[in-house]
Amino acid sequence: SERNSVMVLESILNPRNASDKPWHVFVIAFLYTLVAIVVAHQLFPSQSSILSIALITILFVPFFQKLFELEERKEDAAAQKRLNKNLLTRHSASIMIFSAFFLGVVVAGTFAFMFLPVDNAFSLQTSTLKAISGNILEPTTFSNIFLNNTQVMMLMFILSAIFGAGAVFILAWNASVISVFVGLFTESLTTQGLGTTAAFIVGVPVGLSTLALHGVPEIVAYFVAGLAGGILSVGLIRENYRSAEFKLILKDALVFMAFAELLIIVAAFLEVIV
Length: 274
Prior knowledge:
globular
């Protein structure tokens, strides 16, 4: 039965299956995140806020590496004229998988923040939020937001290009910071008379919606940059750099990065005007 359980888990975390059912990735990300937070808190309580992110990364890197390999094969098929879909259509399922993973970590982090006795598990994230809140009191310019978000996007691309699925760490970290933001928002609802469970059910979607206008294009930009770097990483290993397949991979990676930068510009503009 243990072997069957492992096979079921491997089946759920197979990118071919996940592309059709991204909610599987959401559920697994939720469960893995809870496990990572609890284990990190039990092993090294004072360092659990960063160890939990490392554990989430370790658990999901193999999955995303397989995903990038699958996406690189689509590039091969397109170069050989066996796949006629455009760039975004070819890889849209992967964007959904990234989204499901990210939301799974956010919701699990918020759940742990609200319900689990893991006092130090969010200390770094809380400090980061306080720093961001302090900066809100200062004038926030388009250029500052644009440059900061572009740096994160480039880091996503570079980590994915060098380490394959290395950008999972950055995604998990950003998701954990957002989970603390949503957790604090949800806690504020309990002071208004809502029970903890009701506050969680209401607070998660409402808290996320307050970030959605500028947060969605910003986070999608990070997904796209991570995907571009991941495909390029696999292409560098598998393809001859003079081949038609590699040239298409490189071109598509650059197109993805240009699209990601456009999303960063839109997100920065929305954040300034709202």
